[in-house]
């Protein structure tokens, strides 16, 4: 539970946004309800991997498919499981600024530590519109905000636009997920000393080492619970060290690169097939690791049995610690 004031948000972020943060999916039951028990088990499983914090109702949490009541319930469950001992962040983006503010206030009252805000999809197509929208949300909450820069929301902010976003007092940083390496690097170089910049892809640590900057938090991805199991958390170990400036290439090549290669292949395949967040891949992969997943909601569709078998066989071939055989 956040214990900082609005003016202290940036300092809180410097001290607490470190290491590996996760993105939690929203599992569904066969009758298309939120799997509340499964969500609780998943959070406990992810915490056991050594993650520093987590986010709910994000892209991989299928926020766009949830009703308002479901989004609120997922927040409440996450807050209960975190119990003030595991920092949590809520994604509150919405097309309606009133709904976004309501979600932000609920997160704050439930005990969340941080918010993530992205452009209001569908309508916003100018950087000025995105800046003003973010400012409106920020003015109505005491929580710090990480801005989410991704073309999935219909606009990718430039480094200059991100600088304007970061001038909003309680915006503490940017999740720069544009998939544009030049933009990610430019954002780190121009804003990284004043705000927390995080690119959710492993390459940023190797590039940062070459260029002289260091990313202090992986905020946030699904690689922890797709790559690791409790007692075998090589990915979390690598990110923890890399976030302190210790980029262990040999460790990465030995323990992580083989599974990352498979992940990258199927991530690209899934994104091309569905044209959006690869939630289909992440849910099935999570089930292979023993987590609750269930189906994806429309307009996404599941993998075919043949696709599932191919993924499973590739992971078996590298002795990945999947539970489902």
Question: What is the topological layout?
Answer:
Elements: H1 9-16, E1 19-23, H2 36-47, E2 53-56, H3 68-82, E3 88-91, H4 97-110, E4 114-117, H5 127-139, E5 144-149, H6 159-166, E6 171-176, H7 181-191, E7 196-198, H8 203-211, E8 217-221, H9 223-227, H10 234-242, H11 249-274, H12 279-288, H13 305-317
Parallel strand pairs: 1-2, 1-8, 2-3, 3-4, 4-5, 5-6, 6-7
Helix pairs in contact: 2-3, 3-4, 6-7
Question: TL;DR?
Answer:
The protein has 325 residues and is an alpha/beta fold. The protein has 13 helices and eight strands.
Rounded mean pLDDT score: 97
Distance between the termini: 39 Å
The CATH homologous superfamily name equals: Aldolase class I
Tell how many strands the DSSP assignment holds: 8
What class do helices, strands and sheet pairing give?
alpha/beta
- Topology-level CATH name: TIM Barrel
Work out the helix count.
Answer: 13
Q: What is the share of helical residues?
A: 40-55%
The CATH class: Alpha Beta
- Helix/strand order, N-terminal first: HEHEHEHEHEHEHEHEHHHHH
* Silhouette: globular
Question: What is the rounded Rg?
Answer: 18 Å
For the biggest β-sheet, the strand order reads 7-6-5-4-3-2-1-8
Q: Count the domains.
A: 1
What's the story with the biggest beta sheet? 8 strands, parallel
CATH architecture: Alpha-Beta Barrel
Low-confidence stretches: none
